[in-house]
Amino acid sequence: MIINDPFEHATRQLNDACDILGIDDKGVRQYLATPNRVLRVKIPVVMDDGRLRVFTGFRSQHNNDRGPYKGGLRYLDPKGGIEYAEREVMALSAWMTWKTALVNVPLGGGKGAVYVNPKTENISSKELERITRRFAFEIAEIIGPKKDIPAPDVYTTGTEMAEIMDVYGKLNNKTWQPGVITGKPLNMGGSQARSVATGLGTAYCVRQATKKTGMDLHGASVILQGFGNASTFAGEYLEKMGCIIKGASDSRGSILIADGAKMSDLERHKSETGTVVGFPNSEKVATDQLLTAKCDILIPGALENQITTDIAENIKCKIIGEAANGPTLPDADPILFEKNIQVIPDILANAGGVTISYYEWVQNNMGYYWEFDDVASKMEAHLIHGFDEAFDISMEKKVDMRRATMSVAVKRVYEAFKTRGIWP
């Protein structure tokens, strides 16, 4: 039995949306829940010491009724083991389906992973390249610019994306096929604003939430759980909007900073020491203390299943912007709603990444590239429109924002499914 099965959580969220939409047909619900394909592959790699090691990789293609599959590739070894990792990938691919539908870009949902943690296992750069290239070889048949377009995720970067693009191009006798993947370096066909997209999008959503709730962003206190790409850029842009960073965490611990800190100082400390822990004038605390510390805005930007019912009971923030995927357990949502905490769900709060990935793909396909402000403004328009649609439903139906955002997304996919029909 898998504890806190993420795919069960994703399916439960889907069923909640179907209840709101009046989709009672069990067959339709099963169609919307079930991935079209889940591929598990073995990845044999010769390590630097000459020994052979076999890794396990996955690619889940959830739904392509509205466009090609789209979703990241992560290198991670969750505590539940390989079986949990597969269920996690299935859930993440489903959330990508709803994410692309919510912000109304013509893509579907996919997700991939290799069961390895490059950081804790001290995987060398050469070993990581061999893992990446062999994984690309194993999934090459099912990806492509009009099939399935992967992107970076946990512990993957533009470097790995360029290597996957290179493998795909060589296998298909083409030297230049940038549209097969997004999140690439700029000199490989990447897009301006892609590196900051997830965090910037989270900041845009938080700003819109404050407009709806009447909260002043200037002087608002922010706590960042996680200090990866999404959280750091969310922190940077919220700081530019007038917020004050009062807490942060990474894989080595959590800190609270009573007098606040500049993001640049936190990032410098992290770069020099490898962790935010030990930042001057900070207090080291446990994860639950960080999540439940008094603040205006909480940004959970680490991994899934962080906000449990116990945490939800004690949370003291006003807005939660889910920069991570699946950070809140389903049973915690009603508690947060009852406490009048504005939750910006993951499929909206971190949708900036996939939105700019879409525009990277568009630029690759037409061979014309935009400047930073052009791409960022296009992304902002998608997110704000998605937020406003969901907020209106939340007010009308008197439901939390997760159910509201899921309703918007599921309705779009359901309508595409009805239009396309089933054949043969």
Summarize the structure.
The protein has helices spanning 6-21, 26-33, 81-102, 125-139, 158-171, 197-213, 229-240, 263-273, 287-291, 309-314, 333-338, 346-349, 352-366, 372-397, 401-420, and strands spanning 37-46, 52-63, 69-75, 109-114, 148-152, 221-225, 244-250, 253-261, 283-285, 297-300, 319-321, 342-344. The chain is α/β, with parallel strands linked by helices.
* Discrete helix count: 15
The total of beta strands comes to 12
| Helix content range | 40-55%
Structural class from helices and strands? Answer: alpha/beta
Query: Which runs of at least 5 residues are low in confidence (pLDDT < 50)?
Result: none
Spatial gap, N to C terminus: 36 Å
Order of helices and strands: HHEEEHEHEHHEHEEHEHEHEHEHHHH
| Radius of gyration computed on alpha carbons | 21 Å
Shape: globular
What is the subunit arrangement here?
single chain
Strand order of the largest sheet: 9-8-7-6-10-11-12
For the sheet with most strands, the description reads:
7 strands, mixed
Strand content: 15-25%
In round numbers, the mean pLDDT is 96
